[in-house]
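agent> Task received from the user: take the single chain below, predict its 3D structure, and emit C-alpha cells. No templates, no multimer pairing.
agent> Plan: (1) validate residues, (2) run structure prediction, (3) serialize to C-alpha cells, (4) report one or two observations.
agent> Step 1 OK, no nonstandard residues flagged.
tool_call: predict_structure(input=
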Amino acid sequence: MESSYPTFGLQVAGIISVVIGIGHTAFHRIFRWHRDFQRISALNVKVFTTIHIATTLFLLAAGALTFRYAALLSQSTEVASVVCLSLFVFWCWRLIWQVLYFKPSKIEHDRRLLLLHYVLVLLFAALAVGYGAPLAAASGV
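)
tool_result: status=success, residues=141
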C-alpha cells in the first residue's frame, strides 16, 4: 500500500487517540476525583469509574487499531467508510461539546485547566480531520 495523506492522517489520529486514552488514566489526579467521590454514593462511584475505564479502553483500542490499519481505513471500502464516518461524527461531536459545554468562562480559574481545554480543542479537531480525510478523498473533495 502506498502512503497517502488520508493514511498519514489516520496514523496521527490513532496516536492522538492513544495519547488521550493514556491521559484519561490521570483524570482522577488532575480533577481531584477522590475528593468528589467521598461525597457521592458508592454505587455512583462505581458507575462513574466503570464509564471512565470503558472510555479509556475504547480510546486505547480505537487508537491502536486506527494506527495499525490506517492504510486499510484510508481505502474507499464500505467498512472503512463506516468506521471513519462513525469516528468522524464522534470526534466532531466531542469537539463541539468541548467548545460549547466546557466554555473557558465556565472553567475554574486554573491556568492548567484552561490550557488543557485549548489543547483538547486542537486534538479533537485533528481527530475529526484525521477521520474525515479518507471520507473527503473518497468523495473527491
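agent> Step 4: summary for the user.
The first helix runs from residue 5 to 24.
agent> Done.
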